[in-house]
Design a protein that fits this description.
Blueprint: E1 2-7, E2 10-13, E3 18-26, E4 31-39, E5 46-51, E6 57-59, E7 67-72, E8 77-82, E9 91-99, E10 103-106, E11 110-115
Parallel strand pairs: 2-11
Antiparallel strand pairs: 1-3, 3-8, 4-5, 4-9, 5-6, 7-8, 9-10, 9-11
């Protein structure tokens, strides 16, 4: 019912910046929380940042102060501004939404590679 498409991934050198965007389409009226997760090879998927419909945010400690999440409720989009990137940030980043309180939806993922 809700489709998520990420964009903005790529290759960047350590210390650089990158912005990820996610566009939701379909039955978007029920979207509650929007966020970003990431998964590196051999590691578990982890929460990077999330933002509620009212604007409250939370971040992983490893990215706090470097990443900023934002959303545009009118356009059904969520973005992640990533600054001061580190090689440890290399992963596939996934957009995620909570629909009401029962359902979730995932994007296909976008690769972020940070070289040293």
């Amino acid at each position: 019912q809700v489709q998520l498409v990420e964009s903005g991934g790529g290759l960047v050198q350590a210390g650089g910046s990158l912005t990820l965007s996610c566009a939701a389409s379909g039955s978007t009226v029920s979207i509650n929380r929007m966020g970003w997760y990431r998964q590196a090879p051999g590691k578990q998927r982890e929460l990077v940042a999330a933002i509620a419909s009212g604007g409250n945010t939370n971040y992983a400690e490893s990215v706090k102060g470097r990443f900023t999440i934002s959303r545009d409720n009118a356009k059904n989009t969520v973005s992640l501004q990533m600054n001061s990137l580190k090689p440890e940030d290399t992963a596939v980043y996934y957009c995620h939404v909570i629909l009401g309180s029962l359902f979730t939806s995932w994007g296909q993922g976008t690769q972020v590679t940070v070289s040293s």
